[in-house]
Structures are given as C-alpha cells and as structure tokens.
Amino acid sequence: MKDTYKSITSASEEVLFKDRNSKFYGYAFPVKTEEEINAHLEELRNRHHKARHWCYAWQLGKEEFRYRANDDGEPSNSAGMPIYGQIQSFEVTNILIVVVRYFGGVKLGVGGLINAYKTAAQMALETSERITRSIDRVFVVKFDYPEMNTVMRMIKENNLNVIEQKLELDCKIFLSVRKKEAEEIFEKFNSTYKVEIKELEI
User: Fold this and answer.
1) 173 close to 155: Cβ distance less than 8 angstroms
2) Residues 6 or more apart from 190 whose CB is under 8 A from it?
3) Which residues, in sequence order, are bridge partners of residue 200?
4) Is 86 exposed, middle or buried (0-12, 13-18, 19+ CB in 10 A)?
5) I want to staple 56 with a disulfide (CB 3.0 to 4.6 A). Which of 12, 98, 106, 198 is the partner?
6) Cα separation of 149 and 29, whole Å?
7) Residue 2 confidence (pLDDT)
8) How many other C-beta atoms lie within 10 A of the C-beta of residue 60?
9) CA of 150: how far to CAs of 170, 177, 187, in Å?
C-alpha cells in the first residue's frame, strides 16, 4: 500500500531558459489550495507585468489528484501540458509551476515552445528541494478521565503522533497515523473498553 507522496519544501529559485531572444522564467511553489495558487499567479503577473504569457500547471492532492494546465494564449497544449508533464515526471504534488515568457520577436513554432516550457519547468524543479512525506489518517480518541492510563500506554506502545489533546473529565486526543497502520490502530482502540475512536476528514 502506497502511503507516501512527494512535494517540494519551499519556493524554487528563479530559473531562466532562453531560445532565440525569448526568455522563459521558471518558478515552482509548494501549494495546498487554489487560493494559494491564485496568489502566486497574481504576484508573478505584477512582477512581470511586461511579459507576454504566464503559463502554468498545478496538481493538488495526496491520493486523489486534481490538476490544471493553462497555455495562457500560447498554441493549444504547447505550454501548460509540457509543464504538467514535468510535474508527472518528477512525481510531485501539492505544487504549482509557472513559466513566464517574454517574447523575443522570433516565433519558435509549437515544437520550440514545448521544449522551452518543458525545460524551464524542469529547471525550476531541479533547483527545488524535494521531500517525501507520509500519507496520514487523523483519528480522535474519546474517553473518560479514568481511562487515561490505558490510552496513554497504547499511544506510547504504538509510538503514535499526538496532534492535539484535551484532557478534562471527558478527554479527547487527536492522533496522526500512517495510512498503512491506520486500520490496525483503529481496531486496537475500537476494541478497548470505554474508549471511542473515529476518523476525521481532513
């Protein structure tokens, strides 16, 4: 069972690819929402307000993916999909790649554009620090205060990651568990007397 995914840790350095006087500036950003994506695009449009095209591709998700590829006025599938192809090639997600083009007066043709956008995206990814993260499930464990020792012992024995805890008369502990261990951990708590566990949608 695959329970990891790859992303990048921080925004890439600005990279530059040139072809026959056209300049292609490449950027990669770690993102989790479309709001973040739109904010990065807006910032780059402001920074490069004299550019001709701001082409991009993004992918969100850890198990089920959503993506978009945008040619921004370039010939169909000559910019966005070559950029998205690099996202697939590097097997990364929760990522936005933008390539900003300044037109140099010479048409590159569809083949030239595909190569330029692909190369700028590849360069941006190569300068990024990539990381592999685990896909986790989040559970909330509910119990009364007298069950505290039992629950804490189970957490310690299974080396579980506590995200948050509310320890009052009625207690709640939020746990982050790796996907491949999630079913086993759920059953352990679920079969413990006076302890309730349920999964949270995140």
Assistant:
1) yes
2) 197
3) 138
4) buried
5) 98
6) 44
7) 76
8) 19
9) 14, 18, 15
Domains in the chain: ranges and CATH = 4-133 (3.30.230.30), 135-200 (3.30.70.240)
Q: Which of 55, 67, 127 is nearest to 98 (CA)?
A: 55
The tokens for 74 are 């370039």
Closest C-alpha to 40, from 73, 6, 12, 77: 12
Task: Extract the tokens encoding 78.
Answer: 């000559």
Instruction: Report, as an integer, the average pLDDT of 184-198.
Output: 94
Q: CA neighbours within 13 Å on the CB side: how many for 29?
A: 20
Structure tokens at 179: 């996907």
Alpha carbons 57 and 40: distance in angstroms, whole number: 12
Does residue 102 register a pLDDT over 70?
Answer: yes
201, pLDDT greater than 90: no
**Which amino acid belongs to residue 106?**
V
Give the C-alpha separation, 28 to 128, whole Å. Answer: 7
Distance of alpha carbon 144 from alpha carbon 29, whole angstroms? 44
- Are the beta carbons of 186 and 199 closer than 8 angstroms? yes
Mean pLDDT of the chain: 95
Dig out the tokens for 159 from the structure: 């080396």
